[in-house]
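Below: protein 1.
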Amino acid sequence: MKLFVIAPYLPRTGGASSYLYPLLKHLDDVEIKVYVPSGCADAGSMAPVFNDLPNVEVRTGGDTDMKTWFDSFQPDALLCWEIDPYKSGCGGTRVVSVIHGEGAAHPPSDVIVCDTENLRTELIENYPDEASKAITINGAVELGESDFDLRKYYGIPEKWNVVGFVGRFVPEKNPEALVRASAGQDWTVLMVGIGPQEELLDALSMELGVDTIFTGEMDNVWSAYEAMDLLCIPSLTEEFAQVSMEAALAGVPMVMTPVRSNPEIFGKNVFWTSLQPKEMRKTIAQALEHRHARKVLAGNAKRMIQERCGVQRFVEEWRKVLFGNRGDVKNEHSISQLP
């Protein structure tokens, strides 16, 4: 089988551990070409990681280059990752598109994959004629191993509480709220990632006297999770964040805002907080104070993610979507319901 992927970026949350990476990694019997348009942000930045997979080749270029490569490859399926798919001239190739976020564009695809049921419902409300094409496949995550002692590296005392953030430093992820919530508190904020708000967050941390560590991007995010007593996901909008899956699998308790699909997915297995820094500060402080409650919720979230986001289930569902008969996905909202 042959698969052609068009992606505006190569998802890199937690290094190679991401929604796209485990899919390509475990489709190890499929020849895969990945195309990243050269005009896109992050174009090719993770190409070496993906190219290390023996069955994957990554290229970057313009539309003409993409069409030439696609035509010469003659794939069985075209996977469009949060980008308007190349539809004309595809012949009998199955076109599958993936959308992850609120307000995602509606692409001309044979199958539209949403990573939460909430997002699928929203898509159908906006495009009722596409109900038979829209399905839900939750993401997948594999537990990694820490490769160094991050607390020791940064000189964080063993008994000192660490509240972490993992992700892009952008307004929709709302890391500023965590920094403001940490003003005057006796915990360290561990900021893992990069983004346009990094200078703002650094300046704000200094202004408020918040003990903040910026790690930059980490190839092995599991070392960061191991160092955390609590992960805060203060997003203004979120679907099924890869970070939340990773942290749950790593056994890290979470403070989370009840936006979009978060309540649907995690239910009573996290500490819920408002978007207001004052309320966030109170929730974090209470979570850190009640160690037993953190342990119970983290254990429940881990079991839920193990059941819901296993790689074997994930890859089997995707294999049916990409290479099964077209009738396999008609009028079904979840591939896992197929016989």
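Below: protein 2.
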Amino acid sequence: MIFVYKYWGYIIFVLSIIVITSALIAEYIFNLLPCKMCLYQRYTYYFVIVIFLLFYFLKKSSNIWLYILIEMSIFYGLFYSIWHVGVEKKLLKGPISCSGIINNTNSTDNLKDQIINQPIIDCSNVGWYIFGLSAATLNTIFLLFILVLNTIFITKVYYDKEKN
């Protein structure tokens, strides 16, 4: 367990690289095009990678602010991944830029604009499943797991500092 605490930042960094690499492989090698909400969910991992590298090169990899920033980034990712799961299950409405809905109109120009501006990938359509779970569902589970572990880590670091 001490190993995990000592290298927690590195573990999150490597996991973020694995998630982004997997998403990019799915997109560019297996042609599984992401919707806008999928792309928004990736921002969490990009942020974690960049912020970790900044702290690492500034020689502050053990700074509590790194883990607090990671925590905030995870909340951002959870917001989009839970929303995306809700859109896939038809429980929530997705953003206008992510749905294939055409509004009623009497104007052919307006209809033409709606058709041209339709997203390529509809957020409510699931392109693939693993063990019956969509990518958004897997991302939600993964982010919840990381959130719990990161919260435990922050609590332990804070407790240890208060104790000393």
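The domain at 2-99+107-163 is CATH 1.20.1550 (Bromodomain-like).
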